[in-house]
């Protein structure tokens, strides 16, 4: 075939299929366009107006992305696009909606935070948009190449965001640690992908699923590839024993970045795990399940044990996030519509209860810095009872108290685990979940401990709106979980019919 014929075919394909393909990734395109517009506005507007204008542009762009994803969802989802490198299926749309909501909440919370700390807001919002775009790419990726591109876009934006407090040595330390360890994790993922590509002869997940069968379970190339991928993914979800970076990075990064990372990086990592392991490598299930089962058990035990002794709320929630990742791995191991659906429901619940807890800390921020010690919570409920109630809701939901959404999230995960034979892992999960009550109630105790001096909090509307919405949904989705289940989230993944 001549060069002219190749070019002619490419042009014909673009004219016939380009619009359909773009429609499949329209939420990602909306965020990307918003990112470019925000960068241009940052260049041309006066310094005093850049931050608020870029924040408004960011919220509008993320709302457009959310609306496009919701419209495609209502139309029944999409299909593969761009020669099988991306997709607009329901799983992709779920993550695109989740990341859009997360981005909107982050912009709302950070708008007041960066002004109090005298940071440059426009650059901060641009980094948030870049990270959201990377997360969405991971959710829609159906090729190892696309997965790695999304992973790096997300990671690079977060490396810079973690060190955004330029005059704060702890922030710079957090960024350096995240850069070094994140680079190692990316290298593990890349080498694992290279080995899987060598064994399957393709980077597209559909081709890998077709070409690798049960007889390849003894192929050392594929086994090493699965091991390296598992290690890299465990780094990204802060799974034990690859969790050491998490508490230090969470504590050193600016609060809105920590809140954003605590939900976004975990959800993006689970999107990768579901796509690569449950979808592309079901034939090697015994191998990667053994690895993930060990990581899940270790994460639940170590995360909950170390959270008990923390005096910083940020570090406590970091170790809590390690344990929560272990719970969610049970759903991945269970697989099928029941298991993956439970993971998606829990991620949706985790967005509100965990982000809300971090957003609550932003109301305590002053021009002098953050106040995230447990003692800093004294007098909060005494001076502001509504805020005290909402912080208690977040802690009790994370602990799994009914009728809050965290209870039903864990119930669905544990039920899926028992149903598919992972009873021993569910027993560990139940015991460690009971253990977690100690440190979650410890936070509640400090919130309701009175102090002599009146507690002063920042009354900027942004953080209060984010906290209020998160608390409301943590309760409402617990009382009416069928609202989420009825929306089709449990059936969001086309993955795995055979498991």
Can you offer a commentary on this structure?
This protein has 499 residues and is mainly α. The chain has one domain. It has 20 helices and two strands. Helix 13 packs parallel to helix 17. The C terminus is likely disordered.
SS element count, helices: 20
Give, in spatial order, the strands making up the sheet with the most strands. 1-2
Please, how many domains? 1
Question: What characterizes the major β-sheet?
Answer: 2 strands, antiparallel
C-alpha termini separation: 42 Å
Q: Count the strands?
A: 2
Radius of gyration: 22 Å
Order of helices and strands: HHHEEHHHHHHHHHHHHHHHHH
- Label the overall shape: globular
- What fraction of the residues are assigned to beta strands by DSSP? under 5%
Estimate the helix proportion, in percent.
over 70%
What's the rounded overall pLDDT mean?
87
* Content-based structural category: mainly alpha
Quick synopsis:
This protein has helices at 3-24, 26-44, 47-74, 90-116, 121-140, 144-162, 169-200, 205-211, 220-236, 245-252, 255-280, 285-308, 313-334, 336-362, 380-383, 385-399, 405-419, 423-447, 461-479, 482-486, and strands at residues 80-81, 86-87. With 499 residues, the protein is mainly α. Strand 1 and strand 2 (86-87) form a beta hairpin.
Helix-strand layout with pairing:
Elements lengths: L2 H22 L1 H19 L2 H28 L5 E2 L4 E2 L2 H27 L4 H20 L3 H19 L6 H32 L4 H7 L8 H17 L8 H8 L2 H26 L4 H24 L4 H22 L1 H27 L17 H4 L1 H15 L5 H15 L3 H25 L13 H19 L2 H5 L13
Antiparallel strand pairs: 1-2
Helix pairs in contact: 2-3, 2-5, 3-4, 3-5, 4-5, 4-11, 4-14, 4-19, 5-6, 5-11, 6-7, 6-11, 7-9, 7-10, 8-11, 9-11, 9-12, 10-13, 11-13, 11-14, 12-13, 12-18, 13-14, 13-17, 13-18, 14-16, 14-17, 14-19, 16-18, 16-19, 17-18, 17-19
């Amino acid at each position: 075939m001549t060069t002219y014929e190749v070019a002619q075919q490419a042009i014909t394909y673009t004219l016939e299929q380009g619009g359909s393909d773009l429609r499949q990734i329209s939420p990602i395109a909306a965020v990307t366009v918003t990112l470019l517009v925000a960068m241009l506005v940052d260049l041309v507007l006066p310094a005093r107006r850049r931050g608020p204008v870029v924040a408004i542009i960011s919220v509008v762009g993320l709302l457009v992305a959310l609306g496009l994803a919701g419209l495609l969802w209502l139309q029944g989802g999409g299909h593969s696009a761009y020669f099988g490198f991306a997709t607009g299926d329901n799983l992709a749309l779920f993550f695109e909606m989740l990341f859009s909501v997360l981005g909107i909440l982050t912009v709302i919370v950070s708008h007041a935070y960066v002004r109090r700390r005298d940071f440059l807001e426009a650059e901060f919002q641009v980094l948030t948009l870049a990270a959201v775009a990377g997360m969405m790419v991971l959710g829609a990726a159906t090729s190892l190449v696309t997965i790695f591109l999304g992973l790096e876009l997300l990671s690079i934006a977060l490396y810079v965001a973690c060190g955004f407090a330029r005059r704060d040595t702890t922030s710079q330390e957090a960024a350096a640690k995240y850069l070094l360890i994140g680079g190692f994790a990316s290298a593990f993922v890349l080498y694992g992908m290279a080995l899987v590509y060598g064994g399957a002869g393709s980077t597209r997940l559909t081709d890998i699923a077709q070409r690798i069968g049960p007889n390849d379970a003894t192929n050392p190339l594929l086994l090493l590839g699965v091991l390296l991928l598992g290690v890299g993914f465990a780094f990204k979800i802060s799974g034990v024993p690859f969790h050491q970076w998490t508490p230090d990075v969470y504590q050193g990064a600016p609060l809105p970045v920590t809140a954003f990372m605590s939900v976004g990086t975990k959800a993006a990592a689970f999107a990768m795990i579901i796509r690569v392991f449950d979808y592309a490598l079901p034939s090697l299930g015994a191998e990667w399940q053994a690895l993930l089962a060990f990581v899940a058990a270790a994460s639940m035990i170590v995360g909950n044990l170390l959270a008990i002794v923390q005096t910083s709320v940020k570090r406590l929630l970091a170790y809590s996030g390690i344990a929560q990742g272990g719970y969610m791995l049970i759903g991945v191991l269970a697989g099928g519509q029941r298991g993956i659906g439970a993971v998606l429901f829990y991620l949706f619940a985790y967005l509100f209860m965990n982000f809300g807890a971090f957003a609550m800390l932003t109301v305590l921020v002053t021009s002098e810095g953050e106040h995230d010690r447990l003692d800093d919570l004294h007098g909060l409920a005494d001076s502001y009872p509504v805020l005290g109630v909402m912080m208690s809701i977040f802690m009790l939901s994370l602990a799994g108290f009914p009728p809050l959404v965290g209870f039903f999230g864990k119930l669905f995960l544990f039920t899926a685990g028992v149903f598919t034979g992972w009873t021993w892992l569910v027993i560990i999960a139940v015991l460690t979940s009971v253990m977690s009550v100690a440190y979650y109630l410890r936070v509640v105790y400090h919130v309701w401990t009175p102090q002599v001096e009146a507690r002063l909090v920042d009354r900027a509307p942004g953080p209060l709106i984010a906290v209020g919405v998160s608390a409301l949904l943590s309760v409402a989705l617990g009382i009416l979980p069928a609202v989420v289940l009825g929306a089709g989230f449990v059936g969001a993944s086309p993955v795995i019919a055979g498991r």
